Amino acid sequence: MVQALIFDVFGTCVDWRSSVAREVAADLPRVDALAFADAWRGEYQPAMERIRAADRGYVPLDVLHLENLHRVADRIGVIAPDSLNAAWEKLDPWPDVVEGLKHLKQSRIIAPCSNGSIALMTRLAKYGRLPWDCILGADIARDYKPKPEVYLAACSALDLPPGQVMMVAAHNDDLMAARDAGLRTGFVARPTEYGPEQQADLQPEADWDIVASDFVALAAEVNGR
């Protein structure tokens, strides 16, 4: 039986795009806030890939976010304050998330398995009232998803075999990597994560252990097993 569920956070648990755009609009009122948020997020994977490829030693995502903030600002010719980096700590949960997590917490261990740092995830949990039992993810593994070490480090920290841990994500590639590492998998689509024109991850692309419409439905299925 699944004893713990670990969660992707950006996109799966929280609406990063609208939330970051809100903070950008407040600090940089003359720029297209949504376009800026998209461009900032667009630097996310390339920055982590340099670490995954061992071209750079591990640094927390907070550092990468700040570097990426200034890279995007320089590209469009504006000056962004360092304080804007805290936008990633103020991301609104999707409407079903807190309720679903509370139901899951009654019977299972729940924790983020995010590329976000422990500091970022802790502040985000405070902001969004996400009721985690603990914080897991990149800082524990000193590497970034989808490297298998990240998923396995979370299982090890919980003293559970991978087969008793379920990775929950709105991203098929995240779940594929988790399954390859031996974890169970749960898919919850977030079809507007990247806005109304999103084209990827609109549906499950494999036979995941659970496919649920939202976190409340996920909790009902997990708790019913």
From TrEMBL:
Pfam families: Hydrolase. GO terms for molecular function: (S)-2-haloacid dehalogenase activity. Keywords: Hydrolase. The keyword Hydrolase applies. The keyword Hydrolase applies. Its EC number is 3.8.1.2. It catalyses: an (S)-2-haloacid + H2O = a (2R)-2-hydroxycarboxylate + a halide anion + H(+). InterPro entries: 2-HAD (IPR006328), HAD-like_sf (IPR036412), HAD-SF_hydro_IA (IPR006439), HAD_sf (IPR023214), PGP-like_dom2 (IPR023198), S-2-haloacid_dehalogenase (IPR051540). Catalyzes the hydrolytic dehalogenation of small (S)-2-haloalkanoic acids to yield the corresponding (R)-2-hydroxyalkanoic acids. Belongs to the HAD-like hydrolase superfamily. S-2-haloalkanoic acid dehalogenase family. This is (S)-2-haloacid dehalogenase. It comes from Actibacterium mucosum KCTC 23349.
